[in-house]
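Our consortium's second objective concerns turning raw sequence data into structural hypotheses that experimental partners can test. To show how far this objective has progressed, the report includes one record in full. It was chosen at random from the queue rather than selected for favorable results. The single chain below, 168 residues long, was entered without modification.
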Amino acid sequence: MSEHDDKTFLKRFGLIIVGLAMFGLILIFLATEGNKRIAGSENPMRDVARQDRLAPVFDVYSGETGRAAALAAAEQTREDSAPEAAFGGSLDGEMIYNNACNACHMAGAAGAPQLEAAQWEDRLDKGVDGLVSNAINGIGAMPPKGGRADLTDEQIRASVEYMVEQVQ
């Protein structure tokens, strides 16, 4: 190979590299122009998600104005999170027992007394108010309200009174 062949090769190779670079720049230009035209049709849920990400995590309150705003915000949160009473607020003890209490008390799960007089002898000494208090606050393995936070205290009383009637 001669020196002339080497120069010719380098000249052609350089032209190919410059041509590929120009082709790459043209592709980049076309892609950015095409993206500008498409950007107008953005998903509306993306804006909602962006607002959620940018929303402040906590509110800062100071002074008397802040204290009043904090109390109002706490009250609103409490009202929004107040659970609705189970079973439409019904006070039918048998229905509440069958739908909420029966699962554990029927099988005697974790020491839950079944509806047999022998299992309730010690418990009846506490009186209905004591039994209701235990059911509301939980006792032993039984969680408060039997794990049903949506039951009201009146519904708990109705179901306890139903169970006591069954074992007396």
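The partners drew two points from this record. Residues 8 and 14 are 10 Å apart (CA to CA). Helices lie at 3-38, 44-54, 63-81, 93-107, 117-124, 127-137, 153-167. Both points have been shared with the crystallography group to help prioritize constructs.
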